[in-house]
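Data card: per-record layout.
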Amino acid sequence: HGGLRVNGRTLSRRQMLAGSALTLGGLSLTTSCASLSGQRAGRKGPAGFKLGVCDWTIGRTTQPEAFDVAKRIGLDGVQVDFGRGAEELPLFAPALQQSILERAEQNELEVASLAMGTLNEIPYKSDPRAERWVERAIEVCPAMKTDIILLAFFGKGDLLDDPIGLDLTVERLKKAAPKAEDAGVTLAVESWLNAEQHIEILDRVGSPAVKVYYDVGNSHHKGYDIYQEIRTLGKRIVQFHAKDYDDLYGRGSIDFPRVREAMDAIGYRGWFVMEGVKMPLGVEESCRYDAEYLRTIFPPRV
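The structure for this 302-residue chain is written out next.
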């Protein structure tokens, strides 16, 4: 694709979507200029939506440079992964925390949340290192100016059809929850489980510090009715991943205007973090396309 044609198509698509979104839900949309000032005004409170990207999606896992890329794409922030290690994780190092935060501030961006992708290989349900790391991760949040840690339960950490692993996970979360509560930090479970199974975990743990990280692409991929699941989970969702396994956003199988309606129904405002799968235009151009599309439905001021 030539750059001009791509950009031309994006622009006309934005205009088209803006029109359809207005008729769909009476959404208050902003122009690009208003959107920039809105981002800054929106930082003070959750009046609208902030768009972020996972640092691993843009090939900058646990690297300060992730914020340079996010700035070029036109985003509000980055979800920062703790990285990988045998005994220690890279983000436990104060020097790295500092350099990531400095780069975020230079770019006038924020840390949307932290993530422990390493739990997919070193499972929380069975490895003592994972349990220790989650406790330490809680202490990292204030330094990184965020209060959410995504706990990943995929790969070796999958909880689906593993009642024993699920029981152990509940016990470990029960132990970690008081520390998270005291720190004002939320441990956010992201897994292949459906809404009811997530609610069961949260009810058994019984702490306001344990919630759900909802990935619209993953749950749709599993065949769940994501538009109903969002409503079922309600305030138990602390943050969202934007994802579509089939194409760029708006061209695949996720109906993002319906996602917005579901978010409105539960009163959700805040971060929508892009975890891109399909990158037909290359990483940065695909993320820019996705972000421009999402802005028409999830504006910084509502």
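Known properties of this structure: Residues 1-44 have pLDDT under 50 and may be disordered. The chain is about 50% helix and 15% strand.

See the next section for split statistics.
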